[in-house]
């Protein structure tokens, strides 16, 4: 018998002072049985980090993720169906990044396993840097580990960005995080 997805409910209150975006988001996130709490947290962080782009004509959404080879983990779509941002988690192949570039205006990558991400980056850095419209945002290991401890089936996070640093709290614990830009 196949294992079923685990459903998480996440309420995200995003206050991005750098980009003047303020919004509440109620998400239902289905996690594949092989998905770790760290990957789930990076998926939520990628959503939080890109929430500023949501508007009346844009829709930021989680996709089927691991269940689909034709979709990224998240994407930002315009009302006319164009993919504005193709957002990958982990360590995608160069082929996968190019697939995203062929379909979207830009590709964002958020690695979530610090040790293997460093090796992945060392291997692909020159090739990725040669591509237009690709940005890699790496969450530092210690803050990511602290955030992963906050994962719960009913998650409520307040995220505030000021001067490129996120302060994320669940009401009891707070974690400061600043993504490292690799490209």
UniProtKB/TrEMBL annotation:
SUPFAM superfamilies given in the database record: Restriction endonuclease-like
Classification via Pfam families: YaeQ
Entries under InterPro entries matching the protein: Restrct_endonuc-II-like, YaeQ, YaeQ_sf
Designated name of the protein: YaeQ family protein
Taxonomic path: Bacteria, Pseudomonadati, Pseudomonadota, Gammaproteobacteria, Oceanospirillales
């Amino acid at each position: 018998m196949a294992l079923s997805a685990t459903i998480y409910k996440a309420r995200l209150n995003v206050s991005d002072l750098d980009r003047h975006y303020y919004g509440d988001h109620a998400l239902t996130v289905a996690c594949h049985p092989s998905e770790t709490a760290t990957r789930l947290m990076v998926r939520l962080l990628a959503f939080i980090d890109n929430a500023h782009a949501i508007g009346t004509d844009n829709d930021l959404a989680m996709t089927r993720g691991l269940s689909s080879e034709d979709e990224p983990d998240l994407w930002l779509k315009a009302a006319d169906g164009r993919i504005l941002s193709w957002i990958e988690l982990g360590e995608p192949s160069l082929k996968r990044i190019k697939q995203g570039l062929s379909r979207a205006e830009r590709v964002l990558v958020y690695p979530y396993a610090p040790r293997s991400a460093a090796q992945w980056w060392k291997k692909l850095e020159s090739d990725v840097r040669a591509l237009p419209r690709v940005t890699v945002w790496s969450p530092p290991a210690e803050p990511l580990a602290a955030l992963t401890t906050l994962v719960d089936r009913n998650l409520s996070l307040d995220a505030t960005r000021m001067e490129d640093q996120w302060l994320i709290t669940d009401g009891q614990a707070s974690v400061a995080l600043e993504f490292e830009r690799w490209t």
